[in-house]
């Protein structure tokens, strides 16, 4: 099977079986999605969705969060991973939005990357989910699933994975493909025990082809 055939098969299967994938993070504005994505680093979406409702109510706009002190913010996010670091990042993020972007979440990656707490993955999530741009956010699920299926081969970094996926996936599908791979990795192609027997991608998966021969 060629790389082109593998991509075509994977895209066709996802298109038929997961036609409208969406982020599982709850949010009501671009600003609140940015908060949620920053908090979700090395933490589950389920946990973040428990934490964010009172947080969003207390800090509805960047200006509100920019005025907060760490002692005020910390109790809202104390149950997530690395709460001290994320407290500093969230306040720094809000102040940057207020001071440099008129309180609005910017829509280009260069501007997003100037914001505290925002790395390339977070920036690409915002670009794809909020602005529907052809941005491929590579988290641990996307990185693992892409390599396991065979969409990438020997990728050493998330950026290498991102570039390979963007090169082979049609531009109009990239934002959707980001969710395809995340959700597939979360519920089917799990890190320790991939559920290969119940996976519809068997015909296109290089991992399954190797395992089924053993």
Number of strands: 0
Order of helices and strands: HHHHHHHHHHHH
Low-confidence regions: none
What is the gyration radius calculated from CA atoms?
18 Å
Distance between the termini: 19 Å
User: Which class best fits the helix and strand makeup?
Assistant: mainly alpha
Task: Give the helices and strands, then pairings.
Blueprint: H1 3-17, H2 30-40, H3 45-58, H4 62-66, H5 70-77, H6 83-100, H7 109-112, H8 120-129, H9 140-149, H10 158-168, H11 174-187, H12 206-211
Helix pairs in contact: 2-3, 5-6, 9-10, 9-11
Detailed description of the structure:
With 214 residues, the chain is mainly alpha-helical. It contains twelve helices and no strands. Helix 9 crosses helix 11. The chain is elongated and about 60 Å long. The model has no long low-confidence stretch (mean pLDDT 94).
Quick summary:
Helix content is 59%, strand content 0%.
Please give a handful of descriptors for the protein shown.
214 residues, mainly alpha, 12 helices
């Amino acid at each position: 099977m060629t790389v082109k055939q593998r991509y075509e098969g994977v895209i066709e299967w996802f298109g038929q079986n997961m036609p409208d994938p969406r982020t599982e993070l709850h949010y009501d504005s671009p600003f609140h999605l940015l908060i949620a994505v920053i908090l979700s680093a090395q933490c589950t979406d389920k946990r973040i969705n428990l934490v964010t409702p009172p947080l969003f109510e207390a800090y509805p706009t960047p200006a509100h969060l920019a005025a907060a002190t760490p002692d005020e913010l910390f109790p809202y996010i104390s149950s997530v991973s690395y709460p001290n670091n994320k407290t500093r990042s969230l306040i720094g993020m809000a102040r940057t939005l207020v001071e440099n972007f008129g309180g609005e979440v910017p829509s280009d990656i260069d501007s997003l990357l100037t914001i505290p707490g925002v790395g390339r993955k977070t920036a690409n999530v915002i670009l794809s989910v909020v602005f529907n741009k052809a941005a491929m956010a590579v988290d641990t699920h996307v990185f693992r699933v892409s390599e396991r299926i065979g969409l990438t081969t020997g990728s050493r970094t998330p950026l290498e994975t991102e570039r390979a996926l963007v090169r082979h996936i049609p531009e109009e599908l990239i934002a959707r493909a980001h969710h395809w791979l995340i959700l597939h990795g979360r519920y089917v192609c799990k890190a320790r025990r991939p559920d290969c027997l119940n996976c519809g991608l068997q015909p296109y998966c290089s991992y399954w082809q190797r395992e089924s021969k053993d």
